[in-house]
Amino acid sequence: MASIAAAKVAEVRETTRVERVGAHSHIRGLGLDDSLEPRVVSQGMVGQLTARRAAGVVLEMIKEGKIAGRAILLAGQPGTGKTAIAMGMAQALGADTPFTSMAGSEIYSLEMSKTEALTQAIRKSIGVRIKEETEIIEGEVVEVQVDRPATGVGTKVGKLTLKTTEMETIYDLGGKMIECIMKEKVQAGDVITIDKATGKISKLGRSFTRARDYDATGPQTRFVQCPEGELQKRKEVVHTVSLHEVDVINSRTHGFLALFSGDTGEIKSEVREQINAKVAEWREEGKAEIVPGVLFIDEVHMLDIECFSFLNRALENEMAPVVIMATNRGITRIRGTNYVSPHGIPIDLLDRMNIVATKPYEEKELKEILKIRCEEEDCEMAEDALTVLTRIAGETSLRYAIQLITTAGLVSRKRKSNEVQMEDIKRVYSLFLDENRSMQFLKEYQDEFMFNDMGDSNDAMEVTDG
Ligand SMILES: Nc1ncnc2c1ncn2[C@@H]1O[C@H](COP(=O)(O)OP(=O)(O)O)[C@@H](O)[C@H]1O
Ligand SMILES: [Mg+2]
After folding, report:
1. Residue 327 phi/psi, 5° resolution?
2. Which CATH number goes with the domain that contains 378?
3. 268 and 197 within one domain
4. Nearest residue CA, atom 25 of ligand 1?
5. What is the pLDDT of residues 307-340, one digit of tens each?
6. Which of 301, 304, 310, 436 could form a disulfide with 335, with the two C-beta atoms 3.0–4.6 Å apart?
């Protein structure tokens, strides 16, 4: 009984994990067609066509893998989809291209210097594709024969007969191989591979020639052709790891276990130099190639002048990734200086960047995004409620409206309805303030708050900003 209950709990946990909804979980790509033209609504993406088209071009550059050290800046008001576009690019790149995402402010919270944090982020965004040749034996099992010693003790011995369409060979089996064969339940008619270096056995499927003389094969049985040619083959295996992973594994003070704890600390520059030299050697020998990936730095105006000049240099490196940054700041002070510049980024760095602007959404687009979010959160919403919510998004902010979907959903369920109505939206709109109304509230009651600094409201904003 208890075990059944436990299993149920585990099952529920499993599904909640899968269905966890994040701010950008509805984004499944950039929503472009084959000629890189953005579809109006696709892969969870709505509108913002120019920026998405530009992102598509950048994506193409990255996929070709030829360019290094470019910088792209996504600039636009809050809630115009800058982060969403970066996430879409990450999805579209696929798992084999490294994509690292960080917020500008993260560099201040780690227990390492700012430049070390940036170096690690950069090296996480560069992949090394390592090619290895291994020898394997691949064939169809003709017979497995295991002999137990008559006494029942002592080592087992056995023979394995494998064939291809052209040849057949008998192999002697040691104790360890017999164990593997038992564990994998290898029988006559299976097509298997044996890795010669490790002795690992993997089943590829059952041979087609045995398809008929077997009633007991389940629906999940895979049938494959009997291999051709020699039994012994060379096979190329490819792994992609990031430069940062190679650094950590080779850093004596930390070791590879640090990769799991995430607590990698600072890595000595000698280690990195050695790794760079080794990777260069591998590249020359054709054993490895570099896969430049993407480093995404959100809220990039949070970086200071030291970080900016470090990035400026880092971009010149031959192994630099493509750096995508996002900011919602206009002309503002560069952190760590008294200079003012566009987006709070030094002019010399700005000069290297391709700037992509994101623009505020029209009502139609807001509605479409909200609709997609309702689906993502499994929330049924009446048409007039959605219209009101769209109005709210236009007058306050898209993010605020998106937050209201969740709360309105809860409120509607409370009154045992499974559709959000206008009244639910009204209810949560009065329960939760948006930024403007919160400001209004603070102004009215400022005297009753602690640490009230709001002499002149504009000044106060400046202080919290810097
Ligand atoms: N074009 C879009 N298509 C679909 N969802 C979007 C789009 N733009 C923004 N969103 C969603 O709206 C919310 C706010 O956008 P976000 O990307 O965080 O804005 P920004 O980073 O520009 O401040 C996020 O949940 C985001 O996924
Ligand atoms: Mg953002």
Report:
1. -150, 150
2. 1.10.8.60
3. yes
4. 23
5. 999 999 999 888 889 999 999 999 999 999 999 9
6. 304
- In whole angstroms, what is the distance from residue 223 CA to residue 205 CA? 5
Residue 164 structure tokens: 């291809």
Q: What is the DSSP string of 394-426?
A: HHS-HHHHHHHHHHHHHHHHHTT-SEE-HHHHH
Tally of structural domains, the chain: 3
Please identify, by atom number, the ligand 1 atom nearest to the C-alpha of residue 80.
22
Residue 22 pLDDT > 80: yes
In a domain, 233, yes or no: yes
Per-residue pLDDT, averaged over 361-371, amounts to 93
Q: Atom 11 (ligand 1): residue with closest C-alpha?
A: 81
Pocket of ligand 1 (CB under 6 A): 23-24, 27, 44-48, 76, 78-84, 328, 369, 398-399, 402
Q: For residues 49 and 453, what is the distance between their CA atoms, to the nearest angstrom? A: 42
| Nearest ligand 1 atom to alpha carbon 74 | 22
On the question of pLDDT at 78 being above 50, the answer is: yes
Average pLDDT of the segment spanning 195-208: 85
CA of 370 to the centre of ligand 2 (A): 17
Domain stop point among 360, 375, 405: 360
Count CB atoms within 10 A of the CB of residue 240.
17
pLDDT at residue 464 is higher than 60: no
Domain that includes residue 300, residue range: 22-97+293-360
Domain boundary residue, one of 360, 395, 410: 360
Global pTM reads: 0.73
